[in-house]
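Quick start: read one record
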Amino acid sequence: MQRAGVLLMLATLGACAMPSGYGVGAQAERAAEIQQATRDPAPDAPGTYLDLINRMQAQGLYYASLAHIDAYEKQYGVTPDTIVLRADALRMTQQPAAAAQSYTKLLQTPLAARGHRGLGLIAGAAGDFARAADELQQAAQLAPTDALTLSDLGYARLREGNIAGARVPLMKAAELDQSNPKIISNIALYLLASGEEKPAAALMEQQKFTPDVRAAIRGDAHKVTVAGHTYQHAAQMQQLQQSQQSQQDPRAAPPMAAPVAMSGQTFDAAPRLLQRFAQ
């Protein structure tokens, strides 16, 4: 999900961890590559052109990529690949309504998982974490091994207040991609929200998170705790209503137990997780 402070710091952390691409010379080289990418004429082959647009977006040139998507579609027509590129660029250039329209177009294509994920990210950015979790759940069902989608789903559930529901997708994400700092930060957030202060602190220390990153994660943990109280209260009220309906109508189904995040049940996997990250 778009947590600007945490993600920016984590992106910086990941970049600094790389053995290459560091220093003034590398920065100048990257700037030259970006400048050259925008000046190069459009490739003749559709696949090569799409690669160019993807490279632009990887370098953060989302406005330039929108111009090239227009040129590509004018020459080769609209495809699911160009729709998802346009949707991502619109979302990253703060045009959520237009981005949502493009993501919705993907729902009836082979890239439906990308469509649901994009809609989930837009909802999360707007603070609608219930809808975000629903969209990301659909994306995860269509792309069950996509670690980032699973991580985003876990984060959306945390922010919704569904702490227990965040455990499985986050653990899947961690095992699928054990080195992604965004995923690890969401694991630390889950630990804090579950009351596992020591494992959370150990994980953040092990990953050498900066003080700013740790503070941002703890800030999110406070928001999750507040949302968790609201979520549990709503679940308890629903359970009470179901119980009352069951008493009035014996044929009604028995009420479902409220999903409560218990400290004892949520972190049997913590030691193994920390051990895997240490390898």
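The two ends are 27 Å apart (CA to CA).
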